[in-house]
Each structure stands twice: as C-alpha cells, then as structure tokens.
From TrEMBL:
Catalytic activity entry: (4aS,6R)-4a-hydroxy-L-erythro-5,6,7,8-tetrahydrobiopterin = (6R)-L-erythro-6,7-dihydrobiopterin + H2O
Record-stated family: Belongs to the pterin-4-alpha-carbinolamine dehydratase family.
One example of a Gene Ontology biological process annotation: tetrahydrobiopterin biosynthetic process
EC main group: lyase
Keywords: Lyase
The protein's name: Putative pterin-4-alpha-carbinolamine dehydratase
GO molecular function, one term: 4-alpha-hydroxytetrahydrobiopterin dehydratase activity
Organism: Acidithiobacillus ferrianus
Pfam family, one: Pterin_4a
EC code: 4.2.1.96
Amino acid sequence: MESDLRKGRCQPCEGGVSALSAEAVEAGLRGLPGWQVVDGVLRREFHFNNFYETMAFVNAVAWIADREDHHPDLEVGYNRCVVRYSTHAVGGLTDNDLICARQVNVLLA
C-alpha cells in the first residue's frame, strides 16, 4: 500500500466512495510514521524551532491541500502545528487522507 500512497493523487470522493475499514486504516498507518487515528481522525503533531519554520511548514501543507483539493484541519501555534485529516463527505478516512499525510511526511524527510 505504501507504494500506492507514494504515487497516489487524491480522487474526488463525493458519492460512491466509502470510508476505509479499520483494517485498511491500520495497514495505511504502517507506512505513515508519526501519524495516529484519534476519534476517527488521522492526526500528527509537528514541532519546530520557531514561528518562521512553523509558518513555512503550514504554507507547504496549504500548497499540498490546494494541489490535491483535499484540505486538513490545522491547529497552529508558535512552534507547533497539528495536522488532522478526515474525509467529511464520507464520515471517515479515505485513501485521500493517507495520501495527503504521506505527502506531508515527505516535506520533512
């Protein structure tokens, strides 16, 4: 699955797409170090040295979100950012959430 996520691009998910099963989410998490599912939402907290680095990261995440047309919830502080993904249209997690989380991880690789 990790190779699929690495090459994957988000697909529109209104209508006809189901949320991933718990097993599929668990399998997807194996390729996403640092991410966890909390209350049905894919979540990771990132820490930085200062506000400038935090905002550079936030802007890069925003660029990914715009390109993929799949937008996370962001909680931003001086030296930290919490990124949360879920697919509201299906009421759960989809491949889009895993794909975007993988792309966010690549930012800091």
